[in-house]
Design a protein that fits this description.
Blueprint lengths: L1 E10 L2 E6 L5 E5 L6 H13 L18 E10 L2 E10 L5 E4 L2 E2 L9 E4 L5 H4 L2 H15 L1 H22 L5 H39 L6 E6 L11 H22 L10 E6 L2 E2 H4 L2 H23 L4 E4 L8 H12 L5 E5 L11 E6 L2 E3 L1
Parallel strand pairs: 3-13, 3-14, 8-12, 12-13
Antiparallel strand pairs: 1-2, 1-4, 4-5, 5-6, 6-7, 9-10, 10-11, 14-15
Helix pairs in contact: 3-4, 4-5, 5-6, 5-8
This protein binds adenosine-5'-triphosphate and magnesium ion (MG).
The site of adenosine-5'-triphosphate has 15 residues, from α1.
Amino acid sequence: MYITEIQINDFRNLERVRYVPARGVNILLGNNAQGKTNFLEAIYVLATGSSFRSALDKDLIRLGQDRFFIQAAYLYLNKKHTISLQYTQGKRKRLTIDNKKYALNQERLAAVLFTPDDLYLIKGPPQKRRAFLDNLLRNISPEHRTFLENYEQLLNRRNALLKGDLPDPGMLRALDHVFSLTAAQITLARLNLLKILDELTQRFYNRLGGNEDLQLKYALTFNLPGGKVNLDSIREIVVQAMQEKYIKEKQRKTTLIGPHRDDINFYLDQKNARIFASQGQQRNIAVALKLAEVEVFKKIRGAYPILLLDEILAELDIDRRTTMLDFLMNSSFQTFMTSVDGSLFNNINGKMVWLEQGRLSE
Ligand SMILES: Nc1ncnc2c1ncn2[C@@H]1O[C@H](COP(=O)(O)OP(=O)(O)OP(=O)(O)O)[C@@H](O)[C@H]1O
Ligand SMILES: [Mg+2]
């Protein structure tokens, strides 16, 4: 999919911006604090409903105003759509797609974002990596969304029971019957997704100039035998692992087995990237992972999401920078990227625009 026109009103420091993007790469240039990230943020908020930067919607409204409005026209599988999002302080956000109110919609604008903070996908805490996988799973199918919602509820109930002085064994047994099933459903979904991500991320990492062998491995709270697994075999192992951990769980008063404690490990030439990889290598693994996300989305939904890249070229050496730009220019998805340095884009076949104090000029 790609955006054919976007309007942003009173969002952060962007008062009134109207932009007709190029089908391929769009480069947003400007000094620090002029509104480049705000522009990407507006697209991201339109696509996902909330910001990657602040939890409070009211922070997104331009200071002194009481509402923001973002609207875009886009093409998805050759059909034209419009999407708009309005937020007035103190009210609920209003999202429309093709002038109708929607909460969930398979034709909604979709975006994948890379920001410098995504380094923490590699070196940060495991929640970030689990959230990455689950977010992608939710996008892949409503079924996964339900699994994840069920699991969260069951886990909360189970932990509440374990926190009590004397967990009722009957209640716990009944709960564990469904808990083990949901845990197995999520584990299987994540394992399957990781298999695809492993292959794609490796390919993109090499394509972006990395020579090392990159591997993604899923780390579980129990031992899974090699070879083929299915829902039943995983569930059986979950049940067994839960029995083994039960005394410890009662002592610790929390659930120790299940996907809420799993992780992804990245290996560069068989060494754990979290500990051994350089900053540049970690960055490129994170970028490759995001590109893999773009590709998975395309496989499932038939069209590419929009790619938003904040300061992706900073910290890259000249070779990798050239490789990165070359890759983006030759890709089929629409990209919006920011940079403070226009000279990096000499001889580049993208559309360049400038942002200055929230105003855009071409
Ligand atoms: N709600 C708001 N109302 C008005 N201005 C805001 C609001 N929120 C943030 N700003 C301002 O927006 C400005 C630009 O922010 P932005 O993060 O887009 O800069 P940038 O161009 O990406 O800069 P950098 O190159 O440093 O990343 C900041 O100076 C900030 O004060
Ligand atoms: Mg910025």
